[in-house]
Write a structure and sequence with these properties.
Length: about 375
């Protein structure tokens, strides 16, 4: 399915210390007609590629700074003009402000909500504060409860920084209890993150975090969907490729990004770099834009870095995120998270897999005991 990351604005009501957008000195927002035109352009592009299902991901800045009526107008226009296309909506929001109108929009269009929350209060509030420097955790938790009360599916996106080295993993028990799945991303060194070297995770820190978390979940029998652990484990168990763009060599066939100026990028992670622009909504994708896409794609395929070409985990990894490897200084260097990925693949294919199988057997045994009223205990 083709997905559009729609960055309707770069404005935001938070000032996270690692924000990839940098200082946000020039705040911009797509107007109502521009947004509609951007979405029409995308649907025509999808039509030309014979896609009858698309996904539109509201992103930013903070996507819910764009008025709900503006989205509603655009979505209504899409519904009328493309009745045969199934459109799935989702939003990646900081969850700090949730108006009645946005809540109604979310319900009406069944928008799936991803909220950025970096862990418990002690970690989250250190790195995700509002424009006045106030903590944001409590307010976001309140909004998560409002969404859940209204039966709106919520998942979390957590960015791992140096602060997570001492994280209390009991936070994940809480998420399991609340049935809130979580995706764990590393901190990328772009925008504001470059100004805060104290947040950087040292080589392998992201991988170590994922492994420690995996062990915790197994040991404490925490039943929680954690991405990318679940996708990787599934791929290892079934000798398949992991779901999720980071480990897929054709990721750019499934994503496009349109930003607040109506410029088109291969995906959201490229959109902080003007040099990666591939077109705009009035001219479409330029010929040189298509060349750039082909060049980026080649980095995970025919022009793989030698290290990846020889790597035993190439099937699981495909050289990592295209944007991360494209931004390396040399063509022959893989994604900067190579060490972390390798460490996780190695663990999940060996000791981690053994632990997981034992965990499943133990669980099965416990369930049997419950079902047979203890008769199979011997
Ligand atoms: S919520 Fe997102 S856009 Fe806003 S400051 Fe934080 S990282 Fe940047
Ligand atoms: S683990 Fe490293 S070397 Fe192996 S495929 Fe991934 S990025 Fe390349
Ligand atoms: S460039 Fe990276 S973030 Fe973008 S779709 Fe590909 S793997 Fe995903």
């Amino acid at each position: 399915m083709l997905s559009l990351i729609l960055k309707g604005t770069n404005a935001c009501n938070l000032r996270c210390s690692y924000c990839s957008l940098g200082k946000k000195e020039q705040v911009q927002m797509l107007g109502q007609k521009e947004m509609r035109n951007a979405l029409f352009w995308f649907l025509e592009y999808a039509k030309a590629r014979k896609q009858c299902k698309v996904s539109i991901i509201l992103h930013g800045g903070e996507p819910f700074i764009v008025p709900a009526e503006q989205y509603r107008f655009c979505f209504q226009e899409l519904r009328e003009k493309y009745p045969g296309v199934e459109i799935r909506y989702s939003a990646q929001t900081n969850g700090y402000q949730l108006s009645e109108e946005h809540l109604k929009l979310i319900q009406d269009y069944k928008i799936r909500i991803g909220i950025s929350l970096d862990g418990d209060k002690s970690i989250h509030d250190r790195q995700r504060r509002d424009v006045y420097g106030n903590p944001t955790y409590e307010k976001i938790m309140e909004n998560i409860h409002i969404l859940k009360k209204n039966a709106i599916p919520v998942s979390l996106l957590m960015v791992v920084t140096s602060y997570h080295q001492q994280m209390d993993f009991r936070f994940f028990d809480f998420l399991a209890k609340e049935k809130i799945p979580v995706k764990i991303n590393p901190l990328y060194q772009s925008g504001e993150a470059k100004e805060h070297p104290d947040l950087a995770i040292s080589g392998g820190g992201y991988g170590q975090f994922l492994i420690a978390l995996f062990d915790y979940l197994i040991q404490h029998e925490v039943d929680l969907h954690v991405s990318p652990l679940e996708e990787l484990l599934h791929a290892i168990l079934y000798e398949d490729s992991p779901r999720g763009c980071n480990f897929c060599n054709s990721c750019l066939e499934s994503f496009l990004c349109i930003n607040q100026k109506g410029d088109i990028y291969p995906c959201g992670r490229f959109s902080d770099n003007e040099l990666c622009k591939i077109g705009n909504i009035s001219e479409g994708i330029w010929a040189e834009g298509n060349e750039r896409i082909a060049e980026i794609r080649a980095r995970r395929n025919e022009k793989l870095p030698l290290k990846c070409f020889r790597c035993k985990y190439l099937r699981l990894c495909h050289a990592g995120c295209s944007a991360c490897s494209y931004h390396q200084d040399s063509e022959n260097v893989p994604d900067g998270l190579c060490e972390d990925y390798y460490m996780v693949f190695e663990y999940l294919s060996g000791l981690g897999l053994m632990k997981y199988k034992k965990y499943l057997e133990d669980r099965k045994r416990k369930i049997q005991i419950i079902l047979t009223g203890g008769k199979n205990e011997l």
